[in-house]
Design a protein that fits this description.
Helices cover 31% and strands 17% of the residues. By secondary structure, the chain is of the alpha/beta class. The chain has one domain: Rossmann fold (3-Layer(aba) Sandwich). The chain has a seven-stranded parallel beta sheet with strand order 1-10-9-6-2-3-5, covered by helices on one side. It has a three-stranded antiparallel beta sheet with strand order 4-8-7, covered by helices on one side. Helix 1 packs across helix 2. It starts with a strand and ends in a 9-residue tail after the last strand. It binds 2-amino-2-deoxy-6-O-phosphono-alpha-D-glucopyranose. 2-amino-2-deoxy-6-O-phosphono-alpha-D-glucopyranose binds next to helix 5. The site of 2-amino-2-deoxy-6-O-phosphono-alpha-D-glucopyranose has 14 residues, from helix 5.
Length: 242
């Protein structure tokens, strides 16, 4: 596992976007696994800049997002589809038909999960971007005695709803369920990039990457993946240099 620490968020964003750009330069039909949350926003801004400058071409790129809330109206600004459109897809030359986000409003969420897994199996993700939840979740795979391998519906933990309430008018508006790629799907990506920022995640990222591998810290399963790059800002990295 390659762990890199950055003094500034600008440097982190540039290196992360550069890794995506070099993948796309060598493989124009790359399949990207994308994430939401505040962590990737700066990386997406850098990718938009690189696309505008002509350094990276998304014309033949395909993307699959990790997860989506269940039950939010499709036009709600906090759906992960809206987030991706606003933060990235509307500003780059990707074919929107080649961007995939699970449908959290599907009438049959089991069928939607199965179909997403079938698409993922065919597409095979080259590079999966991940943020980290405060409780060690990746995607919306919450700590539990058991984890699901494939795409599935989860009940969100209260702490996750609290953490995400900052994007809504109140906690009551935060959905209680989501549909997420499973840890098994995430680990099938050829390469994984975990990005963690901020002192409040210093303990959990250290535990996930150096502590026991346990379903109670879903990100700890990344220790079993042969090709993970971890990008940390200096606050999140503080226990790695203690
Ligand atoms: N489902 C998303 C995760 O994919 C994300 O990594 C996490 C952390 O978000 P943030 O980057 O805003 O801290 O939040 C959400 O729960």
């Amino acid at each position: 596992m390659n762990i890199m620490t950055f003094n500034t968020n600008e440097e982190l964003n540039q290196i992360a976007a550069g890794i995506f750009a070099s993948l796309i330069q060598t493989k124009p039909t790359a399949v990207l696994g994308l994430a939401t949350g505040s962590t990737p926003i700066g990386i997406y801004q850098e990718l938009i800049r690189l696309n505008e400058k002509g350094y990276v071409d998304f014309k033949d790129v395909t993307s699959y997002n990790l997860d989506e809330y269940c039950g939010l109206p499709a036009d709600h600004p906090e759906t992960y589809r809206s987030f991706m459109n606003v933060q990235l897809f509307n500003h780059i030359n990707i074919d929107k038909a080649q961007t995939h986000v699970p449908n959290g409003n599907a009438a049959d969420l089991q069928a939607e999960s199965k179909s997403y897994d079938e698409q993922l199996a065919k597409a095979s993700i080259d590079l999966q971007l991940l943020g980290l939840g405060h409780n060690g979740h990746i995607g919306f795979n919450e700590p539990d005695a058991e984890l699901h391998a494939g795409t599935h519906v989860v009940n969100l933990k209260e702490e996750t709803r609290q953490a995400n309430a900052r994007f809504f008018n109140s906690i009551d508006e935060v959905p209680t369920q989501a549909i997420t790629m499973g840890v098994g799907s995430i680990l099938k990506a050829k390469m994984v990039m975990l990005v963690v920022r901020g002192a409040e995640k210093a303990d959990i990222v250290h535990r996930a990457l150096t502590g026991p591998i346990t379903t109670e810290v879903p990100a700890s399963l990344l220790q079993t993946h042969p090709n993970v790059v971890v990008l940390l800002d200096k606050e999140a990295a503080k226990h790695f240099h203690a």
